[in-house]
Amino acid sequence: MKKQLIVLSALASVLAFGQAALAAENVQGENNSQKTGSLIESAAYTEYQVTWNAVSGVANYKIKIVRVDSGDVIVPVIDLGTERVFKDVPYLKSNTQYRVWVAAYDSKGKLLAQKTEVKTTAGEIGGIIRWNLGSLN
Q: In whole angstroms, what is the distance from residue 58 CA to residue 96 CA?
């Protein structure tokens, strides 16, 4: 109970400080609408999803995402079952290229089709962006 009270008190302090800082900025600024707009824009979050067309005879799909410039693995090889929309893409840096690989396998583990595409992220525009790879070869 005591820990919960301490956590709640700390949270209330943080929230109050944030509101006070925002109010102070709005009072000091000459053009409040521009400042408020810039605060909202910087908080915009863009969610990326990857989709592709169905492959006949598929038992499971796999996906991997790698940042092109650094080689960092953003999404390791993940087995998706028969799902054709990957929504668990972590935060991606704006205006950056990523190599997206998707493969389809049959029930015996035989590769049926695959595709690799390089995709570039947009700026922090907010919303959901779907990268559709189309048909796997």
A: 31
121 with 93: CB under 8 angstroms?
Answer: yes
Q: Where are the beta strands (DSSP E) in 1-137?
A: 46-51, 60-67, 73-81, 85-86, 97-105, 111-120, 127-132
> What's residue 45's pLDDT?
72
Query: Which one, of 122, 49, 125, lies nearest residue 90 by Cα?
Result: 49
Please state, in angstroms and rounded to a whole number, the distance separating the CA atoms of residues 62 and 10.
Answer: 43
What is the pairing mode between strands 85-86 and 73-81? Answer: unpaired
pLDDT tens readout for residues 28-76 = 444 444 443 434 444 567 889 999 999 999 999 999 999 999 999 999 9
Kind of pairing, strands 111-120 and 73-81?
unpaired
The candidate with the shortest Cα–Cα distance to 100, out of 59, 64, 58, is 64
Q: How many CB atoms sit inside 10 A of residue 94's CB?
A: 11
Instruction: Specify the pTM.
Output: 0.67
Give the pLDDT score at 40. 42
